[in-house]
């Protein structure tokens, strides 16, 4: 598995961003708008509730944006090939599907790091908030959120590969669909029982429950971290298997050869 093939995908994304500033702006604009809106809401809530609540609220937003950026880092890399009708050229090369996925993940690491650094700096300057409010416990939990974002991104690629570019509309809301179950802003105990069952199957639930424990004065609880990270790895593996089967089906049925910017069935 030559690393040059994987780095080639990352290099392509670099050239796309360098020659088109609008692509660079999408790394920051939406995240900063979200932080601005909800940040001022959390400032208001700090006046009517405990300061710890405001820290948990704003911190939850920032960490959820981290997950969203990780997912979009994968899907945008894929969609750039779809939008430019370069998808067939990619797989006409010696590049394997696994190498392509690794390239998308590498690209996501780069773009997510840039975006997350900008968000942290913005929150620090505007709201005097530091992610260090969570302590060093935040960093192992970030790995879990990143892996979940990668799993969602790979799943999104599989959906579009199977149903065509018209299925793109279904990909963007995926984080919003799982957010009510993830316990980003509230403990999952406030949810109905059936929603709590769904929540326990999400790695993000263990992240935010664990971080609330840290804010309450407890240490890092492995009862939250270990199930979360294991579930995240499981979903990454499952998402890749779904993508692999979808890809093999597309090759076998000739769908891949007919793939274009138009809807396929």
Characteristic terms for this protein:
265 residues, mainly alpha, 12 helices, 77% helix, disordered C terminus
Question: Can you walk me through this structure?
Answer:
The protein has 265 residues and is mainly alpha-helical. It has one domain. It is 77% helix and 0% strand. It is built from 12 helices and no strands. Helix 1 packs across helix 6, helix 4 packs parallel to helix 7 and helix 11 packs antiparallel against helix 12. The C terminus is likely disordered.
Summary, kept brief:
The chain is mainly α and about 260 residues long.
Instruction: Return the string of H and E elements.
Output: HHHHHHHHHHHH
Number of strands: 0
Number of domains: 1
- Main sheet record: none
List the helices and strands and how they pair.
Blueprint lengths: L2 H17 L1 H5 L3 H20 L2 H33 L3 H6 L4 H31 L10 H26 L4 H4 L2 H9 L10 H7 L3 H13 L6 H32 L12
